[in-house]
């Protein structure tokens, strides 16, 4: 079910926002009742920077009938990032305990604008 997104270029020190529907393998909206959502940003450059967001703490369900979510780190979370290449993943653990990676891909974190 994973969708690999195009490389994003985002600035450290900015709010990053992503959104979209979460669909099953047949293209139907996932039932997010009782689900746990986790978004992770991990450095691939050997740095120790990372960010983790969870449902109601950086991830919001904006439309439950279409399984549309909005997520992303705040200025306070991106400000301390070291510019470099990161890999992000949005995972869903459904009420039945099955875990799926829904969205993943590279993000180039650019230096903060001066």
What does this structure look like?
- Strands 1, 2, 3, 4, 5, 6, 7, 8 and 9 form a nine-stranded mixed sheet that branches.
- It is elongated and about 45 Å long.
- Strand 8 (84-93) and strand 9 form a beta hairpin.
- It has one helix at 75-78, and strands spanning 3-4, 8-11, 18-21, 36-43, 50-55, 58-63, 68-71, 84-93, 99-110.
- It has 114 residues and is mainly beta.
CATH architecture: Sandwich
Molecular shape = elongated
Number of helices: 1
Domain count, please report it.
1
How is the biggest beta sheet arranged?
Answer: 9 strands, mixed
Distance between the first and last residues' Cα: 39 Å
What is the element layout, followed by pairings?
Blueprint: E1 3-4, E2 8-11, E3 18-21, E4 36-43, E5 50-55, E6 58-63, E7 68-71, H1 75-78, E8 84-93, E9 99-110
Parallel strand pairs: 1-9, 2-9, 5-6
Antiparallel strand pairs: 3-7, 4-5, 4-8, 6-7, 8-9
Summary tags:
Immunoglobulin-like
Quick recap of the structure?
With 114 residues, the chain is mainly beta.
């Amino acid at each position: 079910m994973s969708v690999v997104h195009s490389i994003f270029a985002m600035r450290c020190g900015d709010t990053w926002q992503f959104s979209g529907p979460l669909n099953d393998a047949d293209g139907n909206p996932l039932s997010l009742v009782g689900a746990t959502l986790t978004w992770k940003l991990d450095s691939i450059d050997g740095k120790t920077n990372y960010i983790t967001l969870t449902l109601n703490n950086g991830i919001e369900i904006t439309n439950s009938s279409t399984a549309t979510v909005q997520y992303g780190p705040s200025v306070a979370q991106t400000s301390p990032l070291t510019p470099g290449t990161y890999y992000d993943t949005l995972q869903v653990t459904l009420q039945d305990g099955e875990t799926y990676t829904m969205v993943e891909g590279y993000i180039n974190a650019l230096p903060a604008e001066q």
